[in-house]
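Bug report

Summary: structure tokens for Elongation factor Ts differ between web form and batch submission.
Environment: batch mode, default settings.
Steps: 1) Submit the sequence below via batch. 2) Compare with the web form result.

Sequence submitted:
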Amino acid sequence: MAEITAQMVKELRESTGAGMMDCKNALKDTDGDFEKAVQLLREKGLGKAEKKADRLAAEGLVSVKVSDDFKIATVSEINSETDFVAKNEQFISLTKDTTNHIQTKNIQDIEELYSSEIDGVKFEEYLKSQIATIGENLVVRRLATLKAGANGVVNGYIHTNGRVGVIVAASCDSEATVSKCSEFLKHLCMHIAAMKPSYLSYQDLDMEFVENEYKALVAELEKDNEERRRLKDPNKPEHKIPKFASRKQLNESVLKEAEENIKAELKAQGKPEKIWHNIIPGKMNSFIADNSQLDSRLTLMGQFYVMDDKKTIEQIIAEKEKEFNGSIKIVDFIRFEVGEGLEKKTEDFAAEVAAQMS
């Protein structure tokens, strides 16, 4: 069995918010596997659905460049050592110039970027000269570009703090629709920046992942129900425990059974059968919403739109298709946030004090 250290328990506690002994026991039960311990705690309703990356940090800026014809969108992240330098005008110019260079030269990865030429010199040498002038180590961490195909369109958004950038690509039925939807894509990028979807659609979810997340969702709701019963707040009724977590699980037989249950319910209520067709669609929509909570948390198409929280992105796009008299399909999106997934350098408190005094 792997040795369970105090540092391992500390990290798990910080990541999940669970109690110290719960974290220690979870690590013991999973033989020290961090991710399995997180999942075990969540299935017991003891851990929050936080990613380890959410509590990590690094400094720097994200930059976005969208071509004038809305056919190419590029996003990059350059890390610096301090937030102070991230506000430096020269550093800000560097990030914009680099992103423009990536797009203009059609650069696909970091290795290609560093070996490319900018202003007559190798990019690697150009960056070194910037480092010497700015006075901090700077690293181009990642980059990505989306291109519009035939009848396609892209757009992007950079948040005012420069720490979050998003690009998105869509395919339309015609250039006429393309010309109408670029502004909508900008708003969609703003939604993605705020709501942090991890997937485009429920169709991108792995079934094993969905089933594991369902266990965690049920545990989370049951835990919250215990608190609601304790508080007895009439404005906070207990959560209804869903049978499913995602539309990935709602196959034809599940939906047919749900519809039959609704019909039986309407019959028991004495509702005339001739009006059932007016009631069933709304009840089916409610059933799907109740049983696809994972989609609304993780998938772009399943999330409720920040500018109209009564409708999902999928519903908003359907409305836009009617408004523009054409079809719109979101093909891909990329969201960068400064420092996500980067480990902070950690030192114990005594070493930190000693380092400051030396």
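Above is the batch result. After comparison, the two runs are identical; trailing whitespace caused the diff. The chain has a mean pLDDT of 91. Residues 191 and 306 are 6 Å apart (CA to CA).
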